[in-house]
Write a structure and sequence with these properties.
With 180 residues, the protein is of the alpha+beta class. It has helices at 2-21, 79-86; strands at 33-44, 55-66, 94-102, 105-108, 131-142, 147-158, 169-170, 174-179. The strands form two sheets. Strands 3, 4, 6, 7 and 8 form a five-stranded antiparallel sheet that branches. The longest helix is centred in the N-terminal third of the chain and has 20 residues, at 2-21.
């Protein structure tokens, strides 16, 4: 009788060991790789107070893979890291470039809010190794008193703490407000 009670446990333990031995850590490059997952726009209705006018929130989602997991930084950023990024292209751990369609041609629109952007440390307190996942980036576009909707697309790239730069991905086109 006792053997019949114990036997199912051995089967479960055996299956668990067999399944866990099937997992092998992915072999990704130490240079981050990204892919475009999606873009969505949400209109935020006007509220009361300064800066609470009607605006659009644009959320860009990308997927990423990195072989050594060194994506992101401690926030607040140490001065040494800030200087390292500044002397290597002047941008942080990710860059979003905005392009709007004017006269049938996409023109880059430099936005001050996108000057220096940082991803928080994605592996803080975790063992080193390959990582993958997705990141959401948010952009806000104000309507204001005089605006025009423009077809707009974005280019995104990221870089890790070793300053390895990913490939560049481009989003689909959406319409967002710009001041005239």
């Amino acid at each position: 009788m006792r053997r019949q009670l114990i036997q199912p446990y051995f089967i479960v333990i055996g299956l668990a060991l067999a399944l866990s031995s099937c997992f092998t850590e992915p072999n990704y490059s130490d240079t981050p790789a990204i892919d475009f997952k999606g873009i969505s726009r949400y209109t935020i209705e006007a509220g009361k107070g300064v800066g609470k006018g009607k605006r659009d929130s644009v959320v860009i989602t990308i997927g990423f893979k990195d072989g050594n997991g060194d994506i992101g930084n401690s926030i607040p950023l140490p001065k040494v890291d800030s200087a390292r990024y500044a002397t290597n292209g002047g941008w942080g751990s990710y860059r979003i470039r905005t392009f709007r369609l004017v006269n049938k041609k996409y023109e880059e629109v430099p936005l001050a809010v996108n000057t220096t952007l940082y991803i928080p440390d994605l592996t803080k307190g975790k063992p080193k190794g390959a990582i993958e996942g997705s990141l959401d980036f948010n952009q806000i576009f104000q309507y204001g008193t005089s605006f025009q909707l423009f077809p707009t697309k974005f280019q995104i790239e990221i870089r890790d703490r070793s300053l390895n730069v990913s490939n560049t991905v481009e989003t689909d086109t959406i319409s967002v407000p710009f001041f005239r």
